[in-house]
Amino acid sequence: MSNLNKFLAELKAKNAKDVRIQTDARTLQRLSHDQSYHKARAPGAVVGVASEAAVSLVMALAHKHAVPVVPFAAGSSLEGQTLALDHGIILDFSDMDRVVAVHTEDLDCVVEPGVGWGELKEALKPTGLFFPPDPGAAACIGGMCGTNCSGTLAFRYGTMKDNVLSLRVVLADGTIIKTRNRAVKSSAGYDLTRLFIGSEGTLGLVTQATLRLRRIPTHSNVIVAQFPTLASSAATVQHLVQSGAPFLRLEIIDDLCIKAVNNEIEDPKLKFAELTTIMAECAGTSADAVTEQINTFKAACGSIAVNVTLATNEKEADRLWNLRKRAFFSAPSLRHHEKGKEWSTIVTDVAVPISRLVDILVATKKLVADAKLVSPIVAHAGDGNFHCLMVVDKNDPDEFKRAKDVRDEMARLALKMQGTCTGEHGIGIGKMHLLEEELGEGALQVMRKVKKALDPKNILNPGKVFLLEKPSKL
What we know:
By secondary structure, this protein is α+β, with helices and mostly antiparallel strands. It has helices at residues 3-14, 25-30, 52-65, 117-124, 141-147, 154-157, 192-196, 230-243, 255-262, 287-301, 314-325, 327-330, 357-370, 397-416, 432-439, 441-454; strands spanning 19-22, 45-49, 69-72, 89-92, 99-103, 108-111, 129-130, 164-170, 176-178, 205-212, 214-215, 219-227, 249-253, 276-284, 306-310, 343-347, 377-380, 385-393. A 7-stranded antiparallel beta sheet has the order 15-12-14-13-17-18-16, with helices on both faces. Strands 5-6-10-8-9 form a 5-stranded antiparallel beta sheet.
């Protein structure tokens, strides 16, 4: 009997009420992939859990039988983090979706890992509070912790690590720990919270998160401006960031991305001019504060910008922001005229210091053109992070290779500029080779020692972030 079968037999014998074991082909297939371009990998079984105690039980038995465990909630990762590489189990957290508590007086809340950030946003609306990180629409809190996600609001409020106060975590052997209490600041011991955030499920499994909340701004508005070139838009963003103006969001959408979104808009009157666009959300505690940000934006745009548009109401603001929200999903429409092909989108994720934003965007545009790829560009420009959405034919190995080569060349350019290969999507399996180039072998050895200390049997999401043993060059 295999280790997996021994594990499943013992888990079934426990007859735990908050554990659901599924081995049917349909479920295994459904949880065999994420939103990335990486090849699907079917797990040996899917184990659903509905409580922290259930997670602890499953991990204790998985540790006993050395069965690999891959955490899964929404499956919205973009670098293969939720793929079961070693035919172990998928641990499905989708039933752990409770908002446990909201402490309005302390501006924090306690949630389980299966809570979607969109669902949390709706639950918090009556309190006048919100949780800033806003990644892809389907993302859940567990995965957001795993990748140290961010989104459009990171420019003002920081990334996930800046907005999580405390975690409860189940370790590889089933041990349950908390990383700290709810106080906004603490100097008590090692910062275990940040150790687990960004670890992509390789060190422990988050079962509860205490999140820092912010007050919804009382006044806000959206303003957009269009530019003749990507370089001129990026230069304007650099100026805006360096001015210190406290915009809520500051994004760039290139001309090709506008074209993709226009492809999905039926009414010609609602289509946008296909020019590179800066979008800013101005927000504050007074109308004067918002007006000051709008004036700063207009002044920075100068005479080079065209179609400067200020939203006149909430509906218009939503229409303008839809440009950014639809970017990823609309990108394949740029190639729908090519019949008989199956499309995949390879998403890059580099980030650089703001002073190098123009340089990296201009260089990237050339890399994409030279490789003859179709790739809109969108940027969380305020913090120097941007994404190429390279639309490739799944069945064209040469095109796939060209896209991966561009991804790597972009990352290496970013590293030369003291940037990073991933601003918010994580390493997963797609960027492992770039992690050593970014941090060096010494840093990887420290990570391996931490991994071996917390997960000596290497059962927590194995094969992700880095290899436990450095590959031989022989």
